[in-house]
Amino acid sequence: MVALLRIEGVFILGLGLYLIVKGLITGGSIEWFVISGILFMTLFGGIGLLVSANGYKAKKMYGRAPSVLANLIAIGVSKYIFEAGFWWAALPLALYAALTIYCAVSIVPEKK
């Protein structure tokens, strides 16, 4: 479970960086509030998942709710990605999110 959350957290941070760099490099002008929104969401999302992973590693309960919530959001996002015609990206995202949700609700950390 820790590995799933860490992979997802690092992926979200990398995706945010990619979107910001792509927006700055392309010929169109990107608004700074858009960049700040992307930065805000990816920083809090990615760091939140990494903190959740540390919670699982320390066998604390505070890592469960954020990981379930983030992956429920990811399933919703995959629906919109699928509707946009990118099924090859939506399917792995939905499967990864479903696996992470399953692990988050079925693996209960034992108290120390």
What does this structure look like?
By secondary structure, the chain is an all-alpha fold. The chain has one domain (2-106). 80% of the residues lie in helices and 0% in strands. The chain contains four helices and no strands. Helix 1 (2-25) runs antiparallel to helix 2, helix 2 (32-57) packs across helix 3 and helix 3 packs antiparallel against helix 4. The longest helix has 26 residues, at 32-57. The radius of gyration is 15 Å and the shape is globular. The model has no long low-confidence stretch (mean pLDDT 84).
Protein traits:
112 residues; mainly alpha; 4 helices
Summarize it:
With 112 residues, the chain is mainly alpha-helical. The protein is 80% helix and 0% strand.
DSSP strand (E) fraction? under 5%
Shape: globular
SS content category: mainly alpha
Helix content: over 70%
Task: Please give the domain count.
Answer: 1
Distance between the ends: 18 Å
* Model regions low in confidence, pLDDT < 50 over at least 5 residues: none
Q: Count of helical segments? A: 4
SSE blueprint:
Blueprint: H1 2-25, H2 32-57, H3 64-83, H4 87-106
Helix pairs in contact: 1-2, 2-3, 3-4
